[in-house]
Amino acid sequence: MKIHNFSAGPCILPQVVFDKMAQACLDFNNSGTSILEISHRRKDAVEVIDTARALVKELMNVPETHDVVFMQGGASLQFPTVAYNLLKEGGKAAYTQTGKWAENAIKEAKRFGEIEVIASSKDQNYNYIPKGYTVPSDVDYFHCTSNNTIFGTQMKEFPNSPVPMVCDMSSDILSRTIDVSKFGVIYAGAQKNMGPAGSAVAIVQKDLLGKTGRNIPDYLNYETHIKKESSFNTWPVIAIYGVMLNLQWLKEQGGVEAIAKINTAKADAMYAEIDRNGLFTGTATTEDRSQMNATFVLNNEDFKADFDAMLKEAGVVSLAGHRDVGGYRASMYNALPLESVQVLVEVMKQFEQKFG
Ligand SMILES: *Cc1c(COP(=O)(O)O)cnc(C)c1O
């Protein structure tokens, strides 16, 4: 049976990525050795990470002022890394608090200095994106989360920031066009929309670095990874290979602009059904709805077992919502085809016919 994987992360990837990764596990580049047992300094391994970095630059139109690095520790290690690299001794930073991941980013940054939460949607269980706030000019940087994976909200535009803007784009990087030059740092754990788990990407404006007066551990210093071209220590070759293949696939689809159109079509179809169908209610404020993660609940929980059985029968998997929201969450990352959304919509329609 065909499976429709709506997982919030690690995400669905294109079949061609799985096929090539599987082959590389058996024999990488006809070398007689598996990609799992080779040095990260072997020529064809270096080519993998170089290609992946170049593809991020190309697909996101990264300007010369910025560089792209791959690190480990996921987005979670980027939370303190950002503060380490940008928050001066005795300095201050401004954060928006728009979800669980933003909370974690704030918590980690607080270890390094004063954090001012300039806007929050916690009062409504993060079901909207705060607007109308002003980013202060007396802080070292401003941090926001572009897409709130758990709550299903997404920033449709970014504020004008008088200080470097840092953004956690873990769950919507490469899903829509972004003007990278507006950001000091963009970072993302790979496993939401970029590849398998095992790496994080950071796009860093180079001239912001080296100014905090802090004694930064080598690994957590962006300058280290820029200088060593992401090969400071042993990086996970198989994980970055997966990222590289997925980026090559994205390029073949026509790049970010092309996939953004498909993502809009998927989200439109999904939200149209949530709004039309009397048995479901969307949990995020309409204007702030995420194109990546659509969150919704059953109006009558008594029918949950019936709906779940119908999903299972249709091959729809990983649709359960995060425990902080409950209900359902349809994650529609780049690799999820429109067809999968259509299958889910069809199940919702049939469910309404049976139980509505
Ligand atoms: C998943 C997620 C994270 C955490 O990512 P890890 O790579 O698991 O550390 C951070 N921010 C956002 C927006 C996420 O969706």
Automatic annotation (TrEMBL):
Q: Which species expresses this protein natively?
A: Empedobacter falsenii
Record-level Gene Ontology MF annotations? O-phospho-L-serine:2-oxoglutarate aminotransferase activity; pyridoxal phosphate binding
In this protein, which residues make up the domain named Aminotransferase class V? Answer: 3-344
SUPFAM superfamilies membership? PLP-dependent transferases
Q: What is the lineage of its organism?
A: Bacteria, Pseudomonadati, Bacteroidota, Flavobacteriia, Flavobacteriales
Entry keyword set? Amino-acid biosynthesis, Aminotransferase, Cytoplasm, Pyridoxal phosphate, Pyridoxine biosynthesis, Serine biosynthesis, Transferase
Q: Tell me the cofactor note.
A: Binds 1 pyridoxal phosphate per subunit.
Required cofactor(s)? pyridoxal 5'-phosphate
Which biological process terms from the Gene Ontology are attached to this UniProt entry? L-serine biosynthetic process; pyridoxine biosynthetic process
List of residues binding pyridoxal 5'-phosphate: A75, S76, W101, T149, D168, Q191, N233, T234
Read off the InterPro entries from this record. Aminotrans_V_dom (IPR000192), Aminotrans_V_PyrdxlP_BS (IPR020578), Pser_aminoTfrase (IPR022278), PyrdxlP-dep_Trfase (IPR015424), PyrdxlP-dep_Trfase_major (IPR015421), PyrdxlP-dep_Trfase_small (IPR015422)
Task: Give the EC number.
Answer: 2.6.1.52
Protein name listed in UniProt: Phosphoserine aminotransferase
Stored HAMAP family: SerC_aminotrans_5 (MF_00160)
Which residues of this UniProt protein bind L-glutamate?
R41
Where does the protein end up?
Cytoplasm
Q: Under which pathway is this protein filed?
A: Amino-acid biosynthesis; L-serine biosynthesis; L-serine from 3-phospho-D-glycerate: step 2/3; Cofactor biosynthesis; pyridoxine 5'-phosphate biosynthesis; pyridoxine 5'-phosphate from D-erythrose 4-phosphate: step 3/5
Describe the reaction catalysed, as an equation.
4-(phosphooxy)-L-threonine + 2-oxoglutarate = (R)-3-hydroxy-2-oxo-4-phosphooxybutanoate + L-glutamate; O-phospho-L-serine + 2-oxoglutarate = 3-phosphooxypyruvate + L-glutamate
* Subunit details: Homodimer.
Question: Which family would the database say this protein is a member of?
Answer: Belongs to the class-V pyridoxal-phosphate-dependent aminotransferase family. SerC subfamily.
Q: Describe its function.
A: Catalyzes the reversible conversion of 3-phosphohydroxypyruvate to phosphoserine and of 3-hydroxy-2-oxo-4-phosphonooxybutanoate to phosphohydroxythreonine.
